[in-house]
Amino acid sequence: MSSTSRPALHEEDFLTTREAASLLGVALRTVQLWVEAGKLSAWKTRGGHRRIPRQAVESLRQQRDALGTIESSAEQRTASAAAQPLHVLVVEDEALTREIIVAMIRSWNLPLIVSAAEDAFAALIHIGRHPPDLLLTDLRMPGMDGYRMIRHLRAMPDAKPIDVVDIGALVPHEVAERGVLRPDAPSFATLKELIMQRMSARLRT
Q1: Does residue 1 lie within any of the structural domains?
Q2: In this structure, are 101 and 20 located in the same domain?
Q3: Which of 42, 20, 47 lies closest to 31 in space, CA to CA?
Q4: d(CA 18, CA 35)
Q5: Do 110 and 39 share a structural domain?
Q6: Is 157 helix (H, G, I), strand (E, B) or coil?
C-alpha cells in the first residue's frame, strides 16, 4: 500500500511489544516470537522499535478467550513456554552451505524459528537481540572464527545457556583441543534428534 493511500493512524492505535504482552498475559519473548512467526503483525519505527496494531492484539485475545485458554498465571507461563518454537541460528560464511543447511532444517516441518548469520560478528549482534536455543556454527571462519565467537558469547552478561553444534568438518579431538566444546558435544549428524529432545524437554517443563 502506498503512503498516499494509507489510512490515518494514531499513536494509540499501536502497542509496544511489552504492552501487547501485558494485555495478552504472556511473556515479552512470546510476543516477539509471535511477531517473528507472523502470528502478530508489526512494523518498526525508525529507531528500530516494534509497534503492533492494537486491533491485532485485541483480535488474538478474543480468539484465546473464545477457546477458553484463559488460565491461572502459573498455567499461562507454563503453556507459553511450551508453545514457543525453538530458535535455531545457523552461522556459516559460505552462502551456499548456509542456504542448504537452513533449507534442510526447515524441510523437517518442526515448530522452529530458523535464522542465519554470514559471520561471527553478525551472529553476536543477532544473539544479543534474539538469543537462540541452538547455535549451529562453522568453527573455521575468516575474521572472527567460531571459537572466539563462542568465547565472546559465554562472556556476555546474563547470557542464557545455548547448545552449540559444530557444522564444520572437524573431528571431536580437534574441537576439544581448543577448549571451547566438549568432545561429546552435540554433532551435526544428530541435529534432528537433538532438536526433538529439546522440544520434548520443553513440553515436560
Answers
A1: no
A2: no
A3: 20
A4: 12
A5: no
A6: coil
Q: Return the CA Rg of the chain.
A: 20
DSSP characters over 77-144: HHHHHHHSPEEEEEE-SSHHHHHHHHHHHHTT--SEEEEEESSHHHHHHHHHHS--SEEEE-S--SSS
Q: Residue 140: which residues within 8 A CB-CB, separation 6 or more? A: 146, 168, 170
Contact 92, 165 (CB under 8 A): no
Q: How far is CA 16 from CA 21, 39, 52, 64, 145, in A?
A: 9, 16, 6, 20, 36
pLDDT tens digit string along 17-31?
888 888 888 888 888
3-state helix, strand, coil split of the chain in percent (to 5) is 50, 15, 35
Q: Are residues 17 and 74 in the same domain?
A: yes
Q: What is the pLDDT of residues 67-99, one digit of tens each?
A: 544 344 444 444 444 457 889 999 999 999 999
The amino acid at 140: R
Cβ 42 vs Cβ 30: under 8 Å: no
What is the C-alpha separation between 162 and 134, in angstroms, rounded?
A: 6
User: Is residue 42 in some structural domain?
Assistant: yes
pLDDT for res 116: 94
Following CA atoms 6, 12, 15, 19 in sequence, which dihedral angle do they give, to the nearest 10 degrees? -170
